[in-house]
Amino acid sequence: MSGPVKVYSVAEGPADGPAVVFSGSLGSDHRMWDPQVKPLVEKGFRVIRYDTRGHGASPVPPGPYAIEDLGGDLLALLDEHGVASAHVVGLSLGGMTGMWLGVNAPDRIGSLVLCCTSAKLGPPGMWADRAKTVRENGTGSVAEAGVGRWLTPGHVAAHPERAEFLREMIANVPAEGYAASCQAIERMDLVDDLPKITARTLVIAGAEDPATPVEHAEVIAGGIPDARLEVVEGAAHLGSYEQPERFTALILEHLEVAR
Predict the structure, then answer these.
(1) Class of domain 9-119+189-258
(2) How confident is the model over 121-159, as pLDDT tens digits?
(3) Are the CB atoms for 119 and 219 separated by under 8 Å?
(4) CA 116 to CA 240: how far, in whole Å?
(5) pLDDT 10s digits, 61-93
(6) Containing H/E element for 202?
(7) How many angstroms separate the CA atoms of 8 and 10, rounded?
(8) What is the C-alpha to C-alpha distance for residues 11 and 157, in angstroms, rounded to an integer?
(9) Domain spans of the chain?
(10) Which of 7, 135, 170, 244 could form a disulfide with 146 if both were Cys (CB 3.0 to 4.6 A apart)?
């Protein structure tokens, strides 16, 4: 495990509001959470979004990364913003980071929302192959397939401009950052640690998610004591972006109880 990286972040909403940190998926930057910002700020929450190391405007240390590295970056971000404890909302890789914090830094977590994620996402060879592809050919080579996992075909057809926005988002991720993050997923296994998570937890799955199907959410919800599982219809992997009203309503309902 290397030292933490000072990641790029954006904070919005009242400085004294309960802090909610949004952690994104592999191949994204903080803009993937655009639909959630205004509704939460209007409810008085302080919304902090950030670019995972190797993504967006954050530094790109050489890989491989480990989930412990990403968790350490998030803890450093909380310190930077003067946040003792935050509600953490993570999707995919961001959810994995949130689970790691829930296990290893429970005092820093007010509650968890784990979206479209997995505690162990194999097979490892797939992630090694994707890292190799990206290092050799750049992230543009996986952008189309990425959008195909993030959005349902119907949504892509109905909203081509949204699909193009996300395609460009993936293609602009530095190749080393994307590949090194694939290696973090390749080696991650949090399944046996799930019972250690004490934070109030909401698990949200997309009914049409090809990347982390509902069974992965069921493992997480079954492993974390008293976790609640919600499955959102018409959502693929980037469910918070494809079905923002439903995801945001679930997140807000969870936060209002946990705040």
Answers:
(1) alpha beta
(2) 989 999 999 999 999 999 999 999 999 999 999 999 999
(3) yes
(4) 9
(5) 999 999 999 999 999 999 999 999 999 999 999
(6) strand 200-206
(7) 7
(8) 33
(9) 9-119+189-258
(10) 170
